Amino acid sequence: MFDTLYSMFRLSLKAIAANKMRAALTSLGIVIGVAAVITMLAVGSGTQKSMAERFSRFGTNILYLRQPWDLDESISSPKDVTMTDVLAIRKLPGVEAAAPYINSGFEVKYGYTSTSLDVLATDTDIFKTYDWELESGRYFNEKEVDSYAQVMVLGATAAQTIFNDMDPLDRTVVLDDIPFKVIGLMKKNGQGGMGFDMDEGALIPYTTGKVKMNAGWNSSDRRALDRVIIRVKDFNTIEDTKLDIMNTVRNTHRIHPLAEDDFQLDDFASFVEEAKSASKTMGILLGVIGAVSLLVGGIGVMNIMLVSVTERTREIGIRMAIGATSADIRLQFLAEAVTLSCIGGLIGVVLGVGISLFVEAHSTSIPVQLSLFSIVLSVGFSAATGVFFGFYPAYKASKLTPIDALRYE
Amino acid sequence: MPLIDTQHLFKIYKLGDVEVRALNDVSVSVERGEFVAVMGPSGSGKSTFMNILGCLDKPTSGKYILDGIDVTATDLSKLAGVRNRKIGFVFQGFNLIKRTTAVENVELPMIYNHTPMHLRREKAMEALKAVGLEKRAYHLPNQLSGGQQQRVAIARSLVCDAPIIFADEPTGNLDTKMSIEVMELFTRLNKEMGKTIILITHEPDIAEYAGRLIKFKDGQKISDERK
Ligand SMILES: Nc1ncnc2c1ncn2[C@@H]1O[C@H](COP(=O)(O)OP(=O)(O)O)[C@@H](O)[C@H]1O
Ligand SMILES: [Mg+2]
Questions:
Q1: Residues A255/A72, Cβ–Cβ less than 8 Å
Q2: Would the CB atoms of A401 and B95 count as touching at under 8 Å?
Q3: Shortest alpha-carbon distance between residue B194 and chain A (Å)
Q4: Among A153, A221, B138, B140, which is most buried by a count of CB atoms within 10 Å?
């Protein structure tokens, strides 16, 4: 039995080798399909992994308050999240800190150098929410926030970009024509963040940002914030604290008791949910892309196998004359189809792994994680494609009668 | 009991309204070890007859007993084993598989009776030796002369020790010298190995090698003489 299979496999390779160009073109669909699936799985699981890492570093004590992106149309006059909310939330017993959060990109100039900078306008509570650490200098204080001070705490990577190896402390950079003095330099934390990456960015007082640089933030309400970041004191009572916060905000927004919220309060769990549903969507998308390309590849295999059966009708006749059964013939063509699609699958794996490694090496923003599972899965699927789409041509070959096959011109 | 025994074979092709009687009531029996030549004009039904004898085709009616087995009662697809064990074929067009070396072509029937791999090569080389081509074992068919290709085909027909060889105009594509080579080989297989050979030809010189001559005309056997 093993002998027979081995012989079949060698025959298949021979038949495929006889028409290398044709085989290559035929298996191209499968090559592309498998490569796409592997790459996308690698990027997908890489993204998922890095998201999960971010979330866990982020801390489970953090809550986000913001206006929903998909605001319910039934809410007639939704109110922005503002400092009023921040101040009210800060008073709650379960809340450790609540900081305004306005995130915007700016061009920053120092001397002749000019580069883009991710700026977070906030207040002193931000230092109590995130676990950032100072490298040198100091954070801005409440007095500076109240007095619209033009001061800045700079992230490590951003400092390197702007100042090279110079000490940034007490130097002045220009944001949107307004000079800011660098008073603090953060340690590199390498964490990224939710939307804002401290390493690449800078912190300024929200007052300065709102009043002196209004251009960056577009909202009808000049007091509007992007979000409020809240740190709760005790994770065990986070649900109670959330209820307190929601009631507080409903109060400050003067929402009728029967009306819907015009805000959204996210916690760690809801981020995880969001990420899960995003990766589920990605999974479905992947499934569709994989299925379509394997379908296309499979039809290619079927087409070429039908051609091959026709071309080799006489050979089939000879084989039958010397003792091949219908099952032998079927097995031979099936083996050929499977070999063809597996070769395509293997080339696809090599290509997909290559692309993934290339992306990993050349991109910092796209995380990649290759898995053996995805490789085994896609090779398995290409083999299955070969069986499925090779079956009909093989069946057709096996149904020929010896004399008709031998007579075929 | 004859090795081959046909009784009232008919093969009728219907082409629209026209009926072609490719075989019209043919009864022939062949004993073990006979060397039979079948002659007749083109279209007289020789190939049709041989294809039925070789279990490649079925008669429309009539009975065919091969080595005691009623093959007309059996489905063609079930006869692969019979073809493999009892019958060797040699065709006018050689019918070797392209891109496959001589020895691999000879091995082919043994793949289908599941001979172990190491034995296959050994037996194939033996068969090639019997037809004097052991030196050409690793040549591809298109690297061999017509006579050599036909000898490879003969080696293939020998390799499973089948008692019968059917040859449909085996010298039809060969020049005189090669024809003689091939016919001497058949004679040797018949005399020394006791193979039963049924050979179609339309050349009287070739038929001379056989010990019995059957003539066909219009699908009928018109004469049958032993020397
Ligand atoms: N598949 C077929 N369909 C229709 N007619 C056929 C077929 N095969 C053979 N015949 C006819 O049967 C007759 C005998 O053919 P064949 O046995 O090949 O003759 P021979 O080998 O003696 O030249 C011929 O008239 C031929 O046209
Ligand atoms: Mg003929």
A1: no
A2: no
A3: 20
A4: A153
Residue recorded with tokens 């015009």:
A262
A354-401: pLDDT as tens digits: 988 888 888 776 778 888 888 898 888 889 999 999 999 999 999 999
How far does the centroid of ligand 2 lie from the alpha carbon of residue B42, in Å? 7
Q: Please, where are the H alpha helices in chain B?
A: 46-53, 80-86, 102-112, 117-130, 146-158, 176-193, 204-207
CB contact under 8 A, B57 and A403: yes
Name the 3-class secondary structure at A315.
Answer: helix
User: Whole-model pTM?
Assistant: 0.71
Domain B33-56+80-226 has CATH 3.40.50.300: yes
Measured in residues, chain B has a length of 227
Ligand 1 nearest atom to the CA of residue A404, by list position: 1
List pLDDT tens digits, range B77-111.
889 999 999 999 999 988 999 889 999 999 999 99
Please give the C-alpha separations between residue A222 and each of A87, A207, A226, A237, B116, in angstroms, as whole numbers. 17, 11, 12, 34, 87
Ligand at minimal distance from the CA of B22 is 1
Domain boundaries, chain A: 2-54+273-407, 68-262
Structure tokens that stand for A280 in this block = 């589920």
CB A207 within 8 A of CB A151: no
